[in-house]
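SAMPLE LOG
Freezer: B-3
Tube label: C17
Construct: single chain, 337 aa
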Amino acid sequence: MTLLLVEGFDHYNSDFYLEAKGWTQSSVYYTSSGRISGKCVYFPYSSPSPYVAYDWGGTNSTIYFGIAIKKAEGGVPTYLASIPLISFRDEANTNQIKIHVNSSNGISVYKGDNTLIEENTSALFGVGAWNYLTGKITISATVGEVTLEFNGDQIINATSEDTKNGTDYVTKINLMAIFNGLDTYFDDLYIDNSQSHGNCHVNHFAPDSDSATHTDFERSSGSNDYEMVEDDVPDGDSTYIKSSTVGHISTFGITTGSLETVKGIQVNNLVKVAGAGNRKIKTIVRSNSTDYQSAESAGLPSTYKYEKAIWETDPDDSNPWTQTKLEAAEFGLEITT
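STRUCTURE (predicted):
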């Protein structure tokens, strides 16, 4: 399996930090009222065409996804039939598949050219309640597929369909506000190219201890490195660690508490170049006293950007992550250029 995207929307308080992680957006907001804990992203109904979109790239004709969705309390919404709740697009930003909420409060699936593929007219969305939508999307002119489950129950089962409206691939997800008159909330998103993970929660853990081995970076103040980078929401240049030396590494410990089955971890480093010169990094997982590196980043920009890497299993033994493994491991970065 390959996780392509993991997002809990937990460490944002401005559009800048959302965009620093690779999202594009318009009129998006954040709230601490996440599905289970932490934050989520939401769209106020009064904003014009609010959306968030992410392009994970690659050449995937099939993807699996899961996402939590809620419409706010406050009355009965007016549906906007022209605006999809979720759309999946190709590398040219052409709509391949669009998932709409229909006038019965159910789900309708359209090809990107607005051809109806299949719909479910059961009333699905409860006002003020979180729901979890999972699905499989396959792009093909002859054997295309859209299968969807809503809170674990199958609601759409369209196979051997023409789902191709652009290229052979799906590389981008677009989320929009569709409950006209009620705010729309999203949380706990994943994209995978080989299997569904069912109903998932994305946990966010900040550093809470310094490494016993890798403390090469210089802190901006204070007495502990982790205190410079522990912010759930980044504080910009107020606290940070820095280095200009190739080969310098800093890693940190985390405390997760009790966990359910861990499908994978995503390590996020918020980085920028403060002066002249080209810098690149590799994300580090240190497990069982061994450092494991991601691929090298592109050259870092002069404004903050998230560099992230996903490990679906513990790289030390290729077995699933557990609370014990995660709390014994360390996470950070190395300057490689």
